[in-house]
């Protein structure tokens, strides 16, 4: 099974500042998909952004962007202009393009936004 | 709105007393997943259905079973809950194509007394 590692259990950022959450993964596959999910306290998990491994261009969704480094197997999430509503647990996830329907999740990063 | 619904949101059961958690979806997705999530941890996949095909994770205890009577519904049965089974249980769906993300329900918080 693939492994996904998030080395920052907790992060904090001042409101309106930028923060980067780290994610690395281990795979022998060349074709796969990567996701960042957000889980606010006591609320359901929602997709923030996704990246196809075959695309070199980094995905962007409004204030959220990724830095995808395929050779380094790194997939970091940058949140710009942080807002109080960004406070949540963030999970990085991997899905193979070829084998099965499983998603592999990292252990998460708890983000605090300081007013 | 199309969504993933889990009932109940909070479930209390007694040690060893069977319990069933339910999940329904209006997205018409062909894949449904059950995850166990303990406090501040990553969701742990228990099993998933691809249409009617059941896929059990190797480390899912035998105490956990699942049923999917139709596309819309999926159930998680815990035959003899132990204290270690207290957790949030998340249901998720996706379309079978691998590009697509999962859509999650709000979860059921299970307490075992």
Structural class of chain A: mainly beta
Please count the beta strands of chain A (DSSP E, at least 2 residues each).
Answer: 12
State the helicity of chain B in percent bands. under 10%
The chain-level mean pLDDT of chain B equals 92
What is the chains' assembly state?
A: heterodimer
Compressed to H and E, one letter per element, the order of chain A equals: EEEEEEEEEEEE
Which structural class do you get from the secondary structure elements of chain B? mainly beta
Largest sheet of chain B: 7 strands, mixed
Shape of chain A: globular
Which consecutive residue ranges of chain A, at least 5 long each, have pLDDT under 50?
none
Rounded Rg of chain A: 14 Å
Distance between the termini of chain A: 40 Å
Contiguous low-pLDDT stretches of chain B (5 residues minimum) are none
* Count of helix runs of chain B: 0
Shape of chain B: globular
Task: Quickly count the helices of chain A.
Answer: 0
């Amino acid at each position: 099974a693939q492994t996904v590692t998030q080395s920052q259990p907790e992060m904090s950022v001042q409101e309106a500042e930028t923060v980067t959450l780290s994610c690395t993964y281990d795979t022998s596959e060349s074709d796969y998909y990567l996701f960042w999910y957000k889980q606010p306290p006591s609320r359901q998990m929602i997709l923030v952004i996704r990246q196809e491994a075959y695309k070199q261009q980094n995905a962007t969704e409004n204030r959220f962007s990724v830095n995808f480094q395929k050779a380094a197997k790194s997939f970091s999430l940058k949140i710009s202009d942080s807002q109080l509503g960004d406070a949540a647990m963030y999970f990085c996830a991997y899905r193979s393009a070829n084998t099965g329907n499983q998603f592999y999740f990292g252990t998460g990063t708890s983000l605090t936004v300081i007013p | 709105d199309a969504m993933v619904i889990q009932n109940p949101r909070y479930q209390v059961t007694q040690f060893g007393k069977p319990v069933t958690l339910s999940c329904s979806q209006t997205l018409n997705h062909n894949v449904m997943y059950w995850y166990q999530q303990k406090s501040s941890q990553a969701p742990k996949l228990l099993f998933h259905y691809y249409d009617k095909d059941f896929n059990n994770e190797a480390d899912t205890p035998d105490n956990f079973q699942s049923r999917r009577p139709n596309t819309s519904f999926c159930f998680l049965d815990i035959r003899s809950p132990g204290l270690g089974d207290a957790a949030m249980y998340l249901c998720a769906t996706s379309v079978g194509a691998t590009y697509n993300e999962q859509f999650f329900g709000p979860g059921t918080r299970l307490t075992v007394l």
